[in-house]
């Protein structure tokens, strides 16, 4: 039986709330803290009960019966973009800001359909350099522009 | 008060701050115009820049971005029938038909004049209401603040609609849960850090906002790409605007609508949770009813009144939502919640003490609202034909740029690459929840208020010798909690009453037959 959007969301959040409730019991308390009316576990425990209760309400009494539509969505592209963002996070330090960001943008433009190499470079590189100049010169926020092997001291 | 206005004028009218207002209005209009990106994303994208400025300039910049984004949202509603945010949906009812009939320029001008008037009139109300409420709220205790926060969170969920209330409440609780990640403030105990040192300081609110709004909006646009017909429509709309002149008869028609909608918008904006969306729909409905049968028929077909009412009301409500933020330190909407987070980032605690301790911030925000509205009218309106070209920028360039600005905005604040990975994780969760129609704004509100709520509850219990009796013994706390309970029950009660009436009416007609 296909499941409605509300019920699926409710189930996912119920799983999150149960995990949260479990982890809330792992919070370490000193012996004298356990006897006080309010300690580090109080709020998480109250929230766990509320979260589980509300998830069950959403599952039991869904506001809408609409189903999830998977067709017509470009899932692969979204997954690839998530991977690209994650890779950007991993490369920004070793590759430096200018190379990693230019590459991130060029791959992004390419994935969304821009195939002309000149356009890819002409939009990404000047924009990244301008942004770097604005941040470092205008707002005094320094970010390493060069890859590790080109930096001074190497 | 005069002294305060002078302080505000001196601060807001400095050349540097005037430049920030102009820059904020332009940037806000630009971002707000992009379908999908609303004021929340616009402000979030500006926070990394605002963080490098002094508090007054930073807040002025963000307030300007807020107005600019609302104005930009109206522009895309009118030109391409694609409201960037819910608060400009009502604008498209009459703005888009007007644009389709070749009067796009006129529709934009009416929207700009109405927004300006709504914003300026509401800022006048704010000038009176905020200091008054600030002085009253000086007598508030931790218990009252705790109750007010409960009211704020419940109200946001209550206004989500009958079917969506449980979902909105659940998302609020998820936001509160996320706020407990990190070291416990008073006992120094790590909570939910999963042994990761990067989580010891908790989750940055900027990270959460960027991931759940800007990043997930862009990913949703990648997930559901637009077809060529839509793109062509956007390109054409941005190129042919027509005349921007508004006739005297139209001004006469608009004036009373603007007056009424400003008052309505401001009052609704002050209520926690209600915000600009409800204000704009309510103003539209009210004006349709007041217009009479003949004029009422024009609503939805390009009526001047139908365009002026929601535009005035949403700007007035945006201004009104600053009242609880500035006087109580409690945000009334998702957008003001982000601003509260930014203020806390500056080490400023909004609330009644702000009015006394840092009057320059308090007053400069109010004064900058006037300046922001003037800038929107004299700078943005003539520039609209050029700014509208943003709609013609191909999404293949725009979307990766939005992703980049969101990621780098967070990275520039923390310089921690772990944050980028965490953003990706939150973006995945946000996309899934968006597909399942779960609202994000209540989660942000819960996240921002979570820490303060826990702190106030802890303090309240300490003052009351660990007794929970303050919940019913202190009249003010009890009153606020009763209002919160009523907010929760009201949608069910009104639904039941409506059902009962419908059944009674059916019964009467059946017996009549």
Automatic annotation (TrEMBL), chain B:
* UniProt organism field: Oceaniradius stylonematis
The protein here is known as Tripartite tricarboxylate transporter permease
Keyword match Protease? no
Question: Could you tell me which PANTHER family the record lists for this protein?
Answer: TRICARBOXYLIC TRANSPORT PROTEIN (PTHR35342)
Where does the record place the DUF112 domain?
A: 18-445
List residues traversing the bilayer: 6-31, 43-66, 108-133, 145-161, 168-183, 203-223, 262-284, 328-349, 361-385, 397-415, 422-449, 476-493
Q: Which UniProt keywords apply?
A: Membrane, Transmembrane, Transmembrane helix
Cross-referenced Pfam families, in alphabetical order? TctA (PF01970)
